Amino acid sequence: MEKTIAVLPGDGIGPEIVREAKKVLVAIEKKFNHKFKFTEGTIGAHAIDICGEPFPNETHDLCMNTDAVLFGAIGDLKYDNDPKAKVRPEQGLLKMRKELGLYANLRPVMAIPGLIEKSPLKNHLIEGVDFMVVRELTGGIYFGEPRGRAEDGRKAFDSNVYTVDEIERISRKAFEFARNRNKKLTAVDKANVLATSRLWRETIQELHKEYKDVELEFMFVDNAAMQIIQNPKQFDVIVTENMFGDILTDEASVITGSIGLLPSASLGVHTSVYEPIHGSFPQATGQNIANPLATILSAAMLLEYSFGLFEEAKTIKEAVDKSLEAGIVTQDLSANNYYNTSEIGRWVSDYILGDL
Ligand code: IPM
Ligand code: MG
Known about the structure:
By secondary structure, the protein is α/β, with parallel strands linked by helices. It has helices at about 15-30, 45-50, 55-65, 75-80, 90-100, 125, 165-180, 195-210, 220-230, 240-255, 295-305, 310-325, 340-350; strands at about 1-10, 35-40, 70-75, 105-110, 130-135, 145-150, 155-160, 185-190, 215-220, 235-240, 265, 275.
């Protein structure tokens, strides 16, 4: 198979982790006789430094004209500490999501057998956990208008806005995933307070008529935050709005033992984007210590969802499991006996090529 992949390393540890994921994709290319053509683009603080824009037109065009996008991370301390900055790196990520129409963000959460001990949660609670968060990604409070500051600067506001169409398309995806998994969908909202959440409920209830084989339940987000820690095995597919999904998936990463392990796929109208759920970890930049596995697993999702290469995706996941079993892990998973970022990438690709 011949395919093109746009690679957007971004900021902080982005270039280091993306390099390893690319290494793994090259191993897959060799083993299975495919041809992947990688083209690099700029985004985030890196792009602002080069051209003043966090998501330049060239990067937009690159993404629109490729078969899939592999993305690293975005964010830089110099902007975090400057709330008055006019352009922010994160705007690049949001712009990319909006312009590519990436409304469905899939974030699988799984207990990994070799790592159960690493989670601060009790083993019996997390053994066998396997659910998927379907996060809405192009609406809600991240994008709603009006937003901004009052003229005197002493008041600020954001708007949480959702249309029936936006709710329906993401919920349809979630119902479809549930139908192909264990047929249970939990819709997380704050319908006791928010008008948008009540519209979500109404729309999902209506849509449920087409998915009678899927069990549907509603859960308030504050309760869901507790249930994810207290009894995570109850979940199969969770669907929720942009902001709740952002928060709940960081929380859910505690189940796997490290946020450095959670991949994601963003699907929608145009080219799909694959990225780790974690941020740019600026403190670790250039030190070769960041965990590349979330990005490597995102590359596996890319093969599966964009190219339909299931066997190849499985090969990556298996190699990652083996590396964890063998204790070939970064600092976040083993404080004393650890390997660096590039050693993990090399081990996983050597394993794939049968060179170990
Ligand atoms: C994520 C990140 C982003 C988000 C930030 C970097 C804008 O936290 O992908 O979860 O809030 O969506
Ligand atoms: Mg987040």
